[in-house]
Amino acid sequence: FKGGDTCEYLLSSGRFLGEKVWQPHSCMMHKYKNSEAKNCLIDKHIVFIGDSRIRQLFYSFIKLINPQVKEEGIKHGNIPFEDKSASIKVDFLWYPEVNGSMRQRIKSWTEGSVAKPHIIVVGAATWSIKIHNGSNEALAQYKINITSIAPLLEKLAISSDVYWVLQDPVYEDMLSESRKMITNEKIDAYNEAAVRILNSSSRNSKAKVKVFSVSKLIAQETIMKSADGLHLPESSRDTSAMILMNVYCNKIMKPIDGSCCQPQPPLTLIQKIAFCFFTLSIIGYLIISLIHRNNYRKNKSCTDLESGEEKKPAVSTPNVSTLEMLLHCFCKLGLIMTYFYLCDRANLFMKENKFYTHSSFFIPIIYILVLGVFYTENTKETKVLNREQTDEWKGWMQLVILIYHISGASTFLPVYMHIRVLVAAYLFQTGYGHFSYFWIKGDFGVYRVCQVLFRLNFLVVVLCIVMDRPYQFYYFVPLVTVWFMIIYATLALWPQIVQKKANGNCLWHFGLLLKLICLLTCIYFLSYSQGAFEKIFSFWPLSKCFELNGNVYEWWFRWKLDRYVVFHGMLFAFIYLALQKRQMISEGKGDPLFSNRVSNVLLFISIVSFLMYSIWASSCKNKTECNELHPSVSVVQILAFILIRNIPGYVRSVYSSFFAWFGKISLELFICQYHIWLAADTKGILVLIPGYPMFNVLVSTFIFVCVAHEISQITNDLAQIVVPKDNSTLLKRLLCIAGFFSGLHFFSAMQDQSRH
């Protein structure tokens, strides 16, 4: 750990991921759009001073503001650029040598009331080498001239951002005869002189000229593609321009995926309160543990001096009290949340951009599939979608989604479309599981609802507080929470139709189907009425939960993307349970689900449907168009998978304990990945061990899985305490929870007011 100045890393070090993606050492670089660049540079004056290579950088920079700009300016003269809409002024000043003329121009900005540029980018040397035929006298004069300019640049650096661009290497074999004297040896000598002289008088001062040396590293990789051996290819100078934009704009725009040059965000009021709470919990747990330890020592068995026999303690060690269990849970949670904060909010660990390659996605997929098959065991029961099977399904889907996220595979559309089916399958299980429970058990009590809501939302609420993120940011949890409440409302509202009642009269089945049709109608209406949807979720307090960046559009998009699949899950559960009740399916160990002929036909149709969907998803060309079709067709592959997995008796009778283990903590894995496996709110990758990518992934994955498992245990323990079965106690706890959220809203309002 060399400190938190990621700007220095951005300006001086990095490597290429593939051919075109530049990865700065230790931090993430944001790719600025034209609108973002304009917002950052509004009312700013930027000046580029130097030779033809600085002119190239100037053009790449202004193309970030206006991509329509053409390189038609005077080659050996000044070139102005102005964007009147944002009042941005960018000038290129032709000074190919570091001499008296350049010094005079720089000096004019340090004197009197002349307006100083906000950003100054300077660099020159190749002309001096060329004109003086690479003589040592020219180098000596360069040192004298840069020594006279350095104090002026340092003076300007007090109020402006000043960058000295080191000279890029050349490709000597391609240089024309008139440039043969420009050698890499000479360039290195000029660069060494510039670095040694600049900032020599202000080493302990904050007003420093920033040395832009990273372009040298970029050029070393790309100069072979140069047209003349001297000037860089367009992609390389575009990278340098983007680095310049990141250095200046990241601290202003604060992009999530631009961690370079961003200061550590200050602790909010709510974060400070959370820190105090967890600290008190740790102290409280330690005090209680010490008291219990002392009591245990006092009650420990001792030897009777008269008989020489061992005495038993008069009082047995008491069971762990509710308070101690509560403090123990919060103690562990506090330590875990400290790790979360250090990983993704403090500038302690490094972060890097994702870079997708087919091998980085498919090789881990093959590896975990082999592991999963290796851990095959017999199921306890052989019903369709039994508990072991659904845990297995959740587990392998979650592992595939994790690999998808860390490899950056969302850029490859066929993979994206298949992952969308996996997310839909989670929601399908939500519809299937909750419908089956309410239909069979008929339990619509408050206890059941509170248990489910607590288990789904506990971790996310804690992360919203500790990581200072809105609830909607963890979009999947709001999604399953809302769908659970919709399923509950559909079945709990009058008339309550459950299996026991329907068995007495078949007409109740039609009543339930009518309820499901009404639900489908409401879903269809809301999906095509964005205005009505946004009005519903814009009312307080729903707006506090579902707004992201000041509106609920993101929530509408996420809900709309898988709008029918929960309904499909409910309908499948209804049909399956009806067939099961009438003994129309065979679920014995080793038996096919239907008769041999029907099973074979359904299996063939399922395999064909599964493959047809994959072919369609792989042929997708436009993400928007495919997303429009996805809600209606995703159920095809989900149902095909269920039938393939359950029709053959042997396949239904076994499961992978490896995948099932991960399935039991799938929700925690999905949420925890945001901050302690990925980084910058999933935009990048957390780097605990720099320089060793594979070893880093192994270590961070091990910690990540352990933390997710521990949080799952903590959630289960706290659920028993916070949501008791006794109704009167539960009511008191609900009032306490309401008070907690009221206090949270109050402090949140105070926070917002102080920010404004």
From TrEMBL:
Its UniProt entry gives the catalysed reaction(s) as: a ganglioside GD3 (d18:1(4E)) + acetyl-CoA = a ganglioside Ac-O-7-GD3(d18:1(4E)) + CoA; CMP-N-acetyl-beta-neuraminate + acetyl-CoA = CMP-N-acetyl-9-O-acetyl-beta-neuraminate + CoA; CMP-N-acetyl-beta-neuraminate + acetyl-CoA = CMP-N-acetyl-7-O-acetyl-beta-neuraminate + CoA
Q: Which residues form a coiled coil?
A: none
Q: Where is the NXPE C-terminal domain?
A: 22-72
> Which of the seven top EC classes does this enzyme belong to?
transferase
Asked if the keyword Transferase belongs to this entry, the reply reads: yes
Annotated transmembrane regions: 269-291, 325-343, 355-375, 396-417, 452-468, 474-494, 506-526, 561-579, 600-617, 659-679, 685-709, 730-750
* One cellular component term from this protein's GO annotations in UniProt: Golgi membrane
Ranges of residues in domain Cas1p 10 TM acyl transferase: 253-734
UniProt GO MF annotations: N-acetylneuraminate 9-O-acetyltransferase activity
Task: Enumerate the Gene Ontology biological process terms.
Answer: carbohydrate metabolic process
EC code(s) of this entry:
2.3.1.45
One Pfam entry name = Cas1_AcylT
* Entry keywords, A to Z: Acyltransferase, Glycoprotein, Golgi apparatus, Membrane, Transferase, Transmembrane, Transmembrane helix
Highest taxon above the source species: Eukaryota
Q: Where in the cell is it found?
A: Golgi apparatus membrane
Q: Which family does it belong to?
A: Belongs to the PC-esterase family. CASD1 subfamily.
Name assigned to this protein: N-acetylneuraminate (7)9-O-acetyltransferase
Source organism of this protein record: Ptilonorhynchus violaceus (Satin bowerbird)
> Which gene is annotated as encoding this protein in its UniProt record?
Casd1
